[in-house]
Amino acid sequence: MRSGTPAIASLARALTTLEALISADNVRSLSDIARDLDMPIATVHRQARTLIAEGFLIRLPNGRYAPGPRFARMLGQVDEKQLIVNSAAPVLHRLAARLCCVVQLGTFENEMVTYRLKTGQGAGNLFTKVGMQLEAYCSGIGKVLLAHLPQAAREAYLSTGPFPPLTPKTIVDPERLRLALTQIKHDGFATDDGEIHDQIFCVAVPIQTADDRVPAAISVTRIKRPGRRMTTERTVQYLQAAAREITASAFAWSPPREARRSA
Q1: How far apart are CA 202 and CA 236, in angstroms?
Q2: Based on CB atoms within 10 Å of each CB, which residue in 139, 193, 215, 239 is the most buried?
Q3: Predicted TM-score of the model (pTM)
Q4: How far apart are CA 184 and CA 194, in angstroms?
Q5: Is 148 exposed, middle or buried, given 0-12, 13-18 or 19+ CB atoms closer than 10 A?
Q6: What are the pLDDT digits (tens) for 51-97?
Q7: Helix (H) or strand (E) segment spanning residue 249
Q8: Alpha carbon distance 163, 117 (integer Å)
Q9: Boundary-marking domain end, from 77, 103, 127
């Protein structure tokens, strides 16, 4: 650890065992799990008994294990979107510094985009603010999130159109927006070229989970100036790399092998 304080090996092993028992997709003996984790079977037995006694684990009648009531209460306190924001912050700070522009992260609530993270050169000059909500149909982040909604939810949103124009370029017709969202989902990114403000150009991509949900999207935004252009293809590549890093950090952590071995 960076502070020099050593990790507690027994705790690391217990957490690894908890994950293995809950993640098993069929009935497996503790002996099998101990072998997979490279741990003594006696250690896994003690850990399982302790986790059950403390309410973090329960054994089902079919022999499988499931989260116990104490673990379930902890899960209920986890805000997935805030978890993504926490994982995204260092990634987006680096991206903003590299591209010398404003980078933002947004989520979809109540048919609006909620801006949850904003960083980079010129961030104070852009009208968005963390915690602000804006219409989804006219922004890069909003269109990405709309494009990845379940079909019924997307159609329900489109049924509220036509939409108020914010600039002459705003897509206000539901059928045109439907076609645009289909293309965005196919392409993997969205742009906002003066649709929310005539001096703003934005590129956005989804943050996608392993089960194909899109709980958030990130964007790069620049104020239009003569002689200054944003190369969309290159920007998409940077954004997609950042999105993959955020997803890996927020959802795909796995313990190092040495943490699984017994002392």
Answers
A1: 11
A2: 139
A3: 0.73
A4: 17
A5: buried
A6: 999 998 998 877 888 888 888 777 766 688 888 999 999 999 999 99
A7: helix 232-251
A8: 26
A9: 77
